[in-house]
């Protein structure tokens, strides 16, 4: 792509994490936590981490976005008073707090107040080390999972008190086994609403050999309902996008006499809140209707690809190391998953990756038996739109949250590169235009922008392969898309279609300016507050 713009490489000593609203990025640089603005790329906070904190095992987490409340107008303004000025646009949500945790301690900082901080200690560690830490429904709540799934503690940063829940089913990583119910935000008369609208907490627990679902009230986390599930070994839960439904599925190790197959491997709610997609171990995606929860369509992944209506693009490497896509004649057999020693290959089956675009019109899948193959489906025609056979196994499939025709593909390559599938026809209503042949993904090589350190001597051991992470930055549909690309030592921001033009105006001397970045004061809190 000719218009690709890549930012300057920024060094770090940990994997950088962008904020949910793409306003900031946080990383560890030595013994300091640095917060960088993603608009100007200037460092806005540089926080010293105490020497007792273990930097090697540290992880960074942002708080959920919060929308500041608009100032309330006086009930009876005087006749001589100036009417309040209406804001040009509603206040935007921001993530204002950030935490960094290791095995024993969690430290929370606030971007609005440099003197404010909170420290959550694991105490004697009798329940094990901290295995996972997240913010709760608001920026004033912190969830801490202990080792061996012994307990989860929900700390309130305002009161300094905690609610302890014993025997969670999972350690909390990747949101497995827990989730806040999504609620559509409502705007109060005073203006402003809590962004995200997270409410009731659903938590899977295991006690006395039974799977239990707990529904906990917001704020107090008292038990609203306790359900003993009919599952044998529950595998996960997932709320629908509108919060009306809660899907829970069993593990593949359990079965029923009248049902063939291993059951559910992946599960996703489709945008629109009317359909549920279930990826099975039998290479089939079943799409269910929320009215009857009966299958209404199937997406089958065959070991031999023979779909004349969909192009198959295979990634090739020439003798110089250059990568490109080649249109492959059908039928074609994609490469299968390699088997390790004493591996039967039974676990390397089924739909391992399943994701949908912003409007639910397209779907991207990966069958674990052929991990290098990406199936991109058009749900309007129920046919594959395009099939890409990568040179390396596929690790992540990421649709843009607003641009429905943008898909990022990340593979297990040791080089800094991603693949971008673009289909502008998804926005068109004409069936003739939508039936055009889909293009191949674009290869975005970032090796020249993200250099990896090399051994300084022959005796020095080789560097272990970097673990790359990729995520879309939430940009509105009228803005050009951008994504974040990082590994343990550096990160960049990439605009695959170029950056938006920034209009600059000169202000007159008589113009009164306001600081749009200022946020309301901090509420009462029972934690450390430096003088």
TrEMBL record:
It comes from the Eukaryota. One of its GO terms (biological process) is microtubule anchoring at mitotic spindle pole body. One of its GO terms (cellular component) is microtubule organizing center. Residues 66-97, 430-472, 512-531 are annotated as: Disordered. Residues 69-83 have a biased composition (Low complexity). PANTHER family: WD REPEAT PROTEIN 8-RELATED, WD REPEAT-CONTAINING PROTEIN WRAP73. This is Uncharacterized protein. It comes from Pyrenophora tritici-repentis.
């Amino acid at each position: 792509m000719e218009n690709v713009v890549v930012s300057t490489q920024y060094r770090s000593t940990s994997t950088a994490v962008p904020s949910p609203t793409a306003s900031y990025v946080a990383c560890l640089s030595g013994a300091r936590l640095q917060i960088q603005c993603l608009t100007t790329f200037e460092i806005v906070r540089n926080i010293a981490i105490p020497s007792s904190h273990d930097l090697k095992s540290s992880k960074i987490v942002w708080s959920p976005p919060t929308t500041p409340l608009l100032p309330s107008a006086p009930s009876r303004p005087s006749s001589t008073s100036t009417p309040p000025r209406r804001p040009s646009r509603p206040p935007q949500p921001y993530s204002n707090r950030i935490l960094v945790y290791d095995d024993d301690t969690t430290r929370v900082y606030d971007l609005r107040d440099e003197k404010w901080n909170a420290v959550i200690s694991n105490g004697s560690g009798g329940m094990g080390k901290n295995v996972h830490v997240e913010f709760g429904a608001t920026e004033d709540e912190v969830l801490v999972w202990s080792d061996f799934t012994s307990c989860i503690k929900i700390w309130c940063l305002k009161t300094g008190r905690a609610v302890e829940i014993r025997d969670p089913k999972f350690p909390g990583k990747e949101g497995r086994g827990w989730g806040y119910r999504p609620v559509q935000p409502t705007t109060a008369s005073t203006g402003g609403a809590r962004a995200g609208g997270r409410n009731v907490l659903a938590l899977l627990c295991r006690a006395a050999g039974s799977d239990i679902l707990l529904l906990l009230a917001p704020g107090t986390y008292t038990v609203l309902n306790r359900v003993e599930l009919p599952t044998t070994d529950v595998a996960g839960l997932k709320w629908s996008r509108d919060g009306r439904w809660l899907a829970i599925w069993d593990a593949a190790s359990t079965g029923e006499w009248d049902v063939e197959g291993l059951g559910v491997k992946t599960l996703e709610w489709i945008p629109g809140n009317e359909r549920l997609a279930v990826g099975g171990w039998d290479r089939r995606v079943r799409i269910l209707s929320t009215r009857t929860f009966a299958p209404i369509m199937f997406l089958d992944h065959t070991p031999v690809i023979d779909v004349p209506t969909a192009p198959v693009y295979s990634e090739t490497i020439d003798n110089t190391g250059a990568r490109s896509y080649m249109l492959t004649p059908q039928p074609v057999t994609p490469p299968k998953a390699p088997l390790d020693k004493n591996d039967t290959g039974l676990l390397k089956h089924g739909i391992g990756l399943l994701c949908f675009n912003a409007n639910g019109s397209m779907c991207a899948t990966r069958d674990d038996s052929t991990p290098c193959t990406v199936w991109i489906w058009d749900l309007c025609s129920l046919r594959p739109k395009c099939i890409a056979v990568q040179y390396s196994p596929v690790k992540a499939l990421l649709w843009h949250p607003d641009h429905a025709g943008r898909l990022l593909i990340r593979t297990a390559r040791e080089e800094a590169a991603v693949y971008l599938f673009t289909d502008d026809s998804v926005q068109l209503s004409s069936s003739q235009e939508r039936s055009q042949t889909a293009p191949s993904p674009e290869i975005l090589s970032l090796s020249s922008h993200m250099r990896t350190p090399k051994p300084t001597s022959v005796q020095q051991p080789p560097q272990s392969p970097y673990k790359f992470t990729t995520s879309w930055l939430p940009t509105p549909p009228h803005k050009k898309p951008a994504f974040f690309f990082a590994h343990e030592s550096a990160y960049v921001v990439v605009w695959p279609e170029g950056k938006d033009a920034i209009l600059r105006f000169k202000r007159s001397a008589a113009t009164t300016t306001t600081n749009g970045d200022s946020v309301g004061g901090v509420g009462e809190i029972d934690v450390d507050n430096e003088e």
